[in-house]
Amino acid sequence: MSDPPSVPRGLIPPPSPRVPRSSPLSSDTPSPGLSQLNVLPSVAAENAFRACCGSHRWARRMAAHRPYPTLEALLAAADEAAYDLTSGDLAEALAGEATTPLPDRGSLTVHTALRAAHAAYEAKFGHAFVLALDEGEDGEAGDPGRALDQTLASLRQRLGHDEDEEAVTTAEQLRRTARLRLIRLARSPDRAGSITPGLPRGTEPTSRRYDGRGRWTVPGRA
């Protein structure tokens, strides 16, 4: 029996987030996207996994452990790989993240508050705010108003964290975000076959740079 995976300092793994009921967790037949992901060449598979989590080590491990017979097996492997990430791996993954665009809903007051909170967060912690938003039953985006409320509430709470507390929270949100992206990837053959390396879909490149020593920097900031 293998030893349990290591966990980022101070992180007690919570129960895994709910997977939409339509996901074939216990099916003996892989979904079309998962079947295609299982047979991709190694480099293409690593690129696909890197679009779910920006750590090279995580992506290589996920590609090397193929084939995955079910989505449940894929998500279990992703969790184990995420708990084994070092601080440098997490910094590399964060360097590929950007603030997820929110729906054009809600009042001007809400969006003004969100912009201010995002700016304060990045100024304090030096990286993009990562949050695995709740999704609908079909695995797609949930209610836009709820997404805005959830994001603003989480920003305000996490701005009160110190650096160690936020490092733990961010690691957990990266893990959950990777799970959600994997669910979408496993459902869609197009995403498994044509996904490109680099940033997750729906994000824009940032000017932050990973320094290779467990830190990443923003030009002009000490």
From TrEMBL:
NCBIfam families listed in its UniProt record: PRK13798.1 (NF010372)
InterPro entries xref list: OHCU_decarboxylase (IPR018020), OHCU_decarboxylase_sf (IPR036778)
Keyword DNA-binding: no
Keyword tRNA processing: no
Ranges of biased composition (kind: Pro residues): 1-18
Protein name: 2-oxo-4-hydroxy-4-carboxy-5-ureidoimidazoline decarboxylase
Region (Disordered): 1-35, 189-222
Biological processes, Gene Ontology terms: purine nucleobase metabolic process
Residue ranges annotated for the Oxo-4-hydroxy-4-carboxy-5-ureidoimidazoline decarboxylase domain, each copy included: 39-95, 108-182
Keywords per UniProt: Purine metabolism
Organism of derivation: Actinacidiphila rubida
Coiled-coil stretches noted in the UniProt entry, renumbered to this chain: none
A Pfam family hit: OHCU_decarbox
